[in-house]
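Assemble and predict.
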Amino acid sequence: MYLLSLITFTPLIAAMIVLCLPKEKEKVIQIVSLAAGAVSFAFSLLLLPAFDKHTPAMQFIERFPWIPSLDVNYIMGIDGLSLPLVILTTFMTLLALIGSLGIKERIKEYFFWFLVLETGMLGVFEALDLVLFYFFWELTLVPMYFLIGIWGGPKKEFAAIKFFLYTLSGSVFMLLAILALYFNSTPNTFDMMALMNAHSLWSPRFQILVFLGFYLAFAIKVPAFPFHTWLPLAHVEAPTAVSVILAAVLLKMGVYGLLRISYGMLPAGFEWFLPMLIVIAVVNIVYGALCAMAQTDMKKMVAYSSVNHMGYCLLGVAGVSATGFSGAVLQMVNHGIITGSLFLLVGVIYDRAHTRDISAFGGLAARVPVYAALMSLACFASLGLPGLAGFISEFLCFLGAFPRWKVYTAIGVLGILTTAAFFLRMIEKVFLGPMNNKWTGMSDMNARELASVVPLTVVTVALGFWPRWALDFMNATMIHMAGLFNK
Amino acid sequence: MINLHLLYPEMVLAVMALGLIIAELFVAAKHSRILYHLAVLAAIIVLCLVGFTLSNPGQYQGLGTLWSVDPLSQFFKLLVLLATVLCLFLALDYKELPPKHAGIFLCLLLLSSCGMMFLVSSVDLLLTFIALELISISSFILTGFERRNKKSTEGAVKYFLFGAFSSGVMAYGISLFYGFTGGTRLIGLAHTGGPLFILAILLILLGFAFKASIAPMHFWVPDAYEGAPIPVTAFLSLAPKIATLGAMLRLFSVLLPASVLDLTALFALLATLTMTIGNFTAFFQNNVKRLLAYSSIAQAGYMLIGIVSGNTLGLEGILLYSFIYVGMNIGAFAVAQAVGSENSRPDSDPYALESFNGLARRSLGTALAMSFFLLSLSGIPPLAGFIGKFYIFSSAMQAGHYLLAAAGVINSVVSVYYYMRIVYHMFFKAAQTQAALPIGPYLFGSLAIATIAVIFFGIYPEPLIAGVKASAQYLP
């Protein structure tokens, strides 16, 4: 069963089909794309029953020689760290594709790039060969450039090229780091599973250098302070569905890489960097929240809240405990779902009002009750209200980090407070208070919008009440990973 | 021992080239396309002959007095001929060339290729010099072939003056070399060192640097490339550069390795300088020919990294990169030609970046292909250019040149900016017209070959790498 390859390459095949279709057949293009997203999602759900929760080992492994003369193999496999992210990717992409049905111009190109993007993202989480990993990592870059640059907002061209150059400058150093690992392993290999057991031969100095190479690539993707400046711009300019993917999946590639490669392969480098990582995590949390508070543009506010939420992930990672890691991974999933729905909801109001200025609204709860309910729920989840998904993962991140970093964790709690402040302020200004008469004609959400948002809301509530279902899939891997450090 | 048969392919090509001049007398100007087809045929025949020599290395490969026919030279010959054929395809769909002089044009093109074939085989400075002159003199005339275009003449004159200067420098270097070693043969250089010998080698290196457009000998490139008819520009950016790098590879990696005369630091400097100057100057170009000219300077810089590394990976890396470079550069020039020839109003620059506006709306396939070539030139996977860069940077990492590799990757990032400027015009700008871009059948052929090569070898480079590994063997 080549299940992982099927999940990954279904969208790519559909992208090729879309490319061959004439551009006038817009309905057919949309159907093919949606079908590919749905098939890929369905395949990824097939992973769940077959996944063995009790082993930290890689599962569903596929291995073929690809470029034998360079020792490059096609190796795919997942464990408790990548499984949640794979399902998150297929799920979010399907919803984003539904959300994209509102795109009116250049439909063929849009769906082509979107499907290529999905293949790239999935591949990153599944690849177990560093060259293959790099291939997929870079494959996400070009489609994103076009998606932001063609269908984005007023400053789209600048946002697109800034995103491209920023991310690329990180990833080329990753390429050098990959080559350094290759030439310093015996026998020379790009196989990630072999490299995870090779670090005992490497000097701490070498590990630190290679760690920095990887870290630059991952930190830019996360985005970790001070490499976060591309994110608000890209988010604000990107079309709604692309913002969703950017926040829900692309940022996760950074934390995933940090856990899988930086931590898994270079423990000495990671240990050396740990004191800085916790500072960066706390800065991300507090600074991200404060920046979000200063925004009047709703989309920019959500974008900065992403910086804040990715800080929780980094906090969990810096805790270097099974609890912290579980929290970080669960936070990645939750942030994907919650921020995804926030972006979709901001897109809904922007489509109607053509503004995202918080103070331009007022009293909308009476006018659009369904929208107001869904938006408030997403905001509450994002600020960590118990009973909703965000609470559990944030709590786990703090719990995991506390034993090692008491003071920093305490400072980090301030971030939660600020998050609550700006989300509540937004709810108050947009939905409560006196009705702004300008929007009396505003219609509530339509079926397409509901179809893309409601599943996310359902999952948000479900994971809030029953996080154990998701945590069970990760536990064995997380315990194993945390155990590596204390040895 | 008479081993003249080793040079049959070169001889056949030279005879056919001269035959084309004679044939021109019998073919009316309006039927000049026949001559083009004959030239393509000639190049393909020689291509097959060179391919044939690979089948029986015992008989068809060997060491002559002036030349060495080995897998290394045969690889570069194949590549030069391939580039020639593809450029001839471009020329077949190019309307600005005077049909009256088709025979001369083709003869010069083929003679230039013939010079390159000698160059990559040469193991004696005498032959090297003659081969370089054969290439240069043909190229000067080819550059100025659009006589009614002032820029063409300007480019040719600059090219000529710079070329004459660098030939003089090189000849002086060869004379010093002769004085020091008592001969011009490059094989078996035993006792080296001494300032005179180093000076000789440096001057010879300058002569090579001129043809391969390596900084600081690159000043002729943008003007000559901009002025030359675009099929010639494509030819100049590919064949001479690759052949010269092949000759440099033989001289500085094989015949005069770092263990004999250590020029590593110098080459590292040249590589960094060439990449950086090429990329940073390309930033400011608004003419696609000039942009691609500077990009081709930068590309030569990447290939030099392979010589710096001096290991097997570096040698193979240069071969691999040259092959891929042919594919991606010819593709980029093919699209540029199609765009430039469509819009030939005298008042505006047909090769301005604005000519690309909205190409994605008009011909999505062509625009995508162009994006693939440009992304490949900047080394983004899964396109072939990435494999080339991967190989080259691997060689640098293996040899411990970490800073050079870092300079290389930073340059790759910089290059993305200006390559993406073309993509920006193609995808983000509105078109003046909605009609599909007209593309001639031969141009389409070149484009299709290049596209398939760039994608196929990007995803599955194994056959190419196997071929390169087999070709990285040399005599003596």
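Residues 263-476 of chain B form one domain.
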